[in-house]
């Protein structure tokens, strides 16, 4: 009956995810998602579980989890579920179906009030705006509409950075890391570069920002910067799960650079 349990599980999971300890984050988020929320705000917060699954490339699982939210009790929860269903569909290369989920989310948002007397949720529709604009941008990115994708996703990241001091802001970093991942997959290196820079402005102690900055530098042929950023990512993910795909990639690339330097 107490929303603090759900909220604190999410915050603790975010702390582990920040450090690259995704196994512990997953355990907490599974519990977090299983608990029934008694209001729309914290029911919508449970979208962090499908968001996490997307970040780990587990798109089918994310689709299933988001689908459960679309059947939820609260309009805010259902709208968030449709938005995350859309994002999972984009990742599965089903952009047309994702567009339909966006329309369903916007229809459901009509049932979400503009304002709420509760101090925790004074403007409930605004909670959905970021995810809606990410979905719009990801659909455009998947369809090869780079200008529209960059417009939507850059605006989202600007808002994330502006809100970097809010209590739940760590999840914005994870969304930016995922945006960078999708940008790299689509060959949109300008967007990936922007995401890296925004993550580093947001929090230079987050390894993910350095990891993406290294990938961008490598793409540009700037091996000096790539090595510097990989070294920073390796240090900052020093307590990460050893099998975390990102840290495995960092170790592999740095080992290759050291080997190449030794042959000179």
Structure description:
The chain is mostly helical. Helices cover 75% and strands 0% of the residues. The protein has 14 helices and no strands. It is globular. The mean pLDDT is 92.
Structure described in brief:
The chain is mainly α and 264 residues long. It has 14 helices and no strands.
* Cα end-to-end separation: 65 Å
- Output the structural class: mainly alpha
Number of helices: 14
The average pLDDT value, as a whole number, equals: 92
Largest sheet entry = none
- Estimate the global geometry from the Cα principal axes: globular
Total strands: the figure is 0
Please report which band the strand proportion falls in: under 5%, 5-15%, 15-25%, 25-35%, 35-45% or over 45%.
under 5%
Share of residues in helices: over 70%
Taking Cα atoms only, what radius of gyration do you get, to the nearest Å? 19 Å
Question: What are the low-pLDDT stretches, counting only 5+ consecutive residues below 50?
Answer: none
Q: What order do the helices and strands follow?
A: HHHHHHHHHHHHHH
